[in-house]
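Whiteboard transcription, Tuesday session. T.W. wrote the C-alpha cells on the left side:
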C-alpha cells in the first residue's frame, strides 16, 4: 500500500528508515498514472515485499517534485539504502521494471 509523502522531510525520512523504497510521482489529472499505480503496487507487494511504497502528488507538493527533478508524470524513483538506482518516466513496462528492481533487491536481501 502506498503511503503519501508531502514534504522533503517526509522524503528524506523514508529513505533513512527503509532499505528499499519506491516513490511514485503523479497527480490526479493523469489517466495513465491511475491505470499504472495499481499495477506497480501489485508488482511490489507480490515480488518485493521488503520494499516500501510512497506516493507524491506533484500538484500538492511541487517543491518535492522539483527537488527530485520530476518534470513529467508518472515518474518512479527506486532507492536502495538511500541511493537512487532506477528512474522511469512516462511509458514504462512492468516486466522491465521488475527485472531492474530484482537485480538490486536480490543482492540486498538474499
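and on the right, the sequence the group agreed on:
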Amino acid at each position: 500500500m502506498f503511503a503519501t509523502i508531502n514534504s522533503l522531510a517526509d522524503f528524506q525520512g523514508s529513505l533513512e528508515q527503509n532499505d528499499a523504497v519506491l516513490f511514485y510521482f503523479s497527480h490526479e489529472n493523469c489517466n495513465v498514472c491511475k491505470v499504472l499505480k495499481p499495477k506497480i503496487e501489485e508488482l511490489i507487494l507480490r515480488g518485493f515485499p521488503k520494499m516500501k511504497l510512497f506516493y507524491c502528488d506533484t500538484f500538492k507538493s511541487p517543491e518535492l517534485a522539483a527537488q527530485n527533478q520530476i518534470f513529467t508524470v508518472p515518474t518512479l524513483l527506486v532507492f536502495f539504502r538511500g541511493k537512487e538506482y532506477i528512474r522511469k518516466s512516462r511509458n514504462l513496462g512492468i516486466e522491465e521494471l521488475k527485472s531492474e528492481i530484482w537485480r538490486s533487491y536480490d543482492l540486498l536481501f538474499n
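Someone added at the bottom: The first helix runs from residue 8 to 17.
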